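Students often ask why we bother encoding 3D structure as a string. The short answer is that it lets us treat folding as translation between two languages. Here is a chain of 333 residues written in the first language.
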Amino acid sequence: MSTKPFFDPTGSPTAVPGFTVGHAHHPEMPTGLSVVLCPEDTVGGLDVGGSAAGTRQTNGLDPDHLVDRVNAVLFTGGSAFGLDAAGGVVAYLEQRGRGAPVGPTVVPIVPTAVIFDLPLTGGKGRPDAAMAATACAAAGDGPMARGCVGAGRGATVGKLFGVPQATKGGLGGASCRVGDLRLGAMVVVNAFGDIIDEDDRIIAGARTSPEAHELVNTEQWFTTGQKRPEIKQVTNTTLAVVTTNAKLNKSQAHKVAALAGHGMVRTINPVNTTYDGDMVFVLSCGDIDADINGLGVIAARLVRMAILDAVRSAGPLGGLPAASGLQPKPRGE
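And here it is in the second language, the structure alphabet:
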């Protein structure tokens, strides 16, 4: 007997019992970070689609790696500099005895991924360990803040012509309930490509000029044989994390993450480019039996919903307009 699913566009990873989410951002600069704290015995998987990923401790998610549990996942701004913020999460967890037991102590496992938001900050005000500790202390299981918060604070989308002609990105979420099965998602959208809505329209992306509110079709630009303008290289990343109470091992979590990435493919165009560090994390803690492919289908839908939520929830920042201030552009134009 089938069960009707309930998709919640206001949901987040906290829809799965035991997971909490916390954000923190710089008081002056448009940068920040977001952490997902995991319950005991959480298993993780990862799929990397882009060619410009910036990470720390993600090797522990490999199915063949000795480590088999995850204590937290951190998304942060600041590019490679932001990776240092993971130390704040590690210290927070160590103080609470959370981590892989190693002799007289524990080693917290905190896979971390960064977005490139330095153009908006001028390289200043990078996320650090203190900011990460603040996010951990603020983590809760209630409604998740979204938009220009946490790691989405300095996110931008549509960088065909560079950041001055981009649109503001952000952080979003969604969740699903099917009987006893639960899934939740959080996505930070800092994409090179344009964002495509449910009606096949571009709602955020590259603009015709720094002052304009008119969108360019990045796909069309490339398909007419044009090359990307010679501007300073700008790296981009869309980061997603999906939580579930389905019972998964590391290999299964990895496969679900790969399927969940289809949500990016349906919503960001182009995606997984040489300029992007796109990746999807899957975190499993529970004993619900579920079809692996079915989980991937649901996860992909949640990633799509969370991407759209991120750009729709974002407001103007750093001199860039948000999707709410732009006229959607049909992809056929």
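Translate back mentally: The longest strand covers residues 181-190. Keep this in mind for the problem set.
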